[in-house]
Amino acid sequence: MKQTSTYKLITVVLSVMLGVLLCACSNNVPNTLSGDSNAPLRLAIAPYQDVAMLVNEKVLGLEEKYGTKLDLVSMPFEDIFPAVASAGQTVDVGFAGLSEYLSKQENVNAKSDDPVLFIYPLYVFKAGAFITFNPNVPDINAQSIKNPEVMKKFLSFKFGAQRNSIFQMMLFLMAHRAGIKPSQLQITDTTINDGLLASENGSLDVASASLTQKSEALKHHGRVVLTQETLGIWDITGFICKESIYKKRKKDIDSLIKMWFDCANYVLSDLDHHSVAGLAYLKDKASTQFTLEEYKQALTNEHFPRTVEEAEKELVSSNGKYSLAKECSIVNQYLEDIGTIKSPKPVPKIISLDY
Questions:
Q1: DSSP string spanning 99-152?
Q2: Which residue has the higher pLDDT, 166 or 270?
Q3: E strand or H helix at 43, and its extent?
């Protein structure tokens, strides 16, 4: 009896101690739920030359200027979309290309009452290209792209391009212009790094390439045979987030967008002296290491509006040089070709900023 009472007493004491310990721990864990307006806005960023400009928000004191705290979470670009789709469990906001968003949103949002939204365009990526080590592959330039026979010959080779990427869309668009069915194309689904190696060893004739892969191909006596600019296609990158996150954190997200343009304007106004923070971030996080000159050269392959007003004019307006509507038209045609959609999807509704 005495022994049983002793066990009960020990059990009660341990329960009380455990409760006190859990309370203490919970008080020391910061509240990072997205519904907490005092929590930092968690932003997923990839260690690329363009996105890296945002790290200058610390240099410029923009968190104090706009009253919004940021928590920058570095991750590979391809991981950002699923992280954002977690509804604030991983990150609140992230970067995404419009082509990626349009390709994935059908599946991601189909059974959700809290869709992922493409909320605001930021800059234009136009550095995508195709490279080859095969001397028989013709160059597609401003003159040859007007020749259907040259385009048909070009499209007869074996390509490496990731499924649903801007690169596969380039090939489908070219097929339409050349008057051949996209289903006739020989495309292997591969990443740009694997495609580079496959084209160099001859198992592919032509491979998709971004800045790093173009540079590597040229170093090993390869050629750039088609660029986005020649084809007149581009990919707009912008912010994405869940609808619920936007409703809860509108003020902070508005501030984030303004911070982006402040940072872009700061860096691009004097690349020689305002690239320090970005280069330090890339040195720490990126697989590609840039000298200042390489960093400056990389940024020439993209278009950056310096202000919200410029973005509205150039990207949001249907008459803009790099309009969302024009890119949506190209992506919709591709998605219909592969059977993902039966009718064109509308242009994402861009949010209005409060000033």
A1: HHHHHHHHHHHTT-SS-EEEEEEEEEE---EEEE--TTSPP--TTGGG-HHHHH
A2: 270
A3: strand 41-45
Query: Based on the domain organization, do 145 and 221 belong to the same domain?
Result: yes
Q: Residue 109 has what pLDDT?
A: 84
* Token pair for 77: 């670009």
For the domain that residue 116 is a member of, what is the CATH number? Answer: 3.40.190.10
Q: Report the C-alpha gap between 26 and 55 in whole angstroms.
A: 31
Q: Are residues 92 and 182 in the same domain?
A: no
For residues 296 and 147, state if they share a domain. Answer: no
Would you say 177 and 144 are in contact if contact means Cβ atoms under 8 Å apart?
no
**H helix intervals, the chain:** 2-28, 56-59, 62-66, 77-84, 98-109, 148-155, 166-178, 192-201, 211-219, 228-231, 243-248, 250-269, 271-274, 276-285, 292-299, 308-311, 324-337
pLDDT digit string (tens) for 274-327?
999 999 999 999 887 889 999 998 899 899 999 999 999 999 999 999 999 999
Please say if the pLDDT value at position 52 is more than 80.
yes
- The candidate with the shortest Cα–Cα distance to 270, out of 246, 241, 299, 234, is 299
CA–CA distance, 86 with 91 (Å, rounded to integer):
8
For residue 60, give the nearest of 255, 297, 302 by alpha carbon. 255
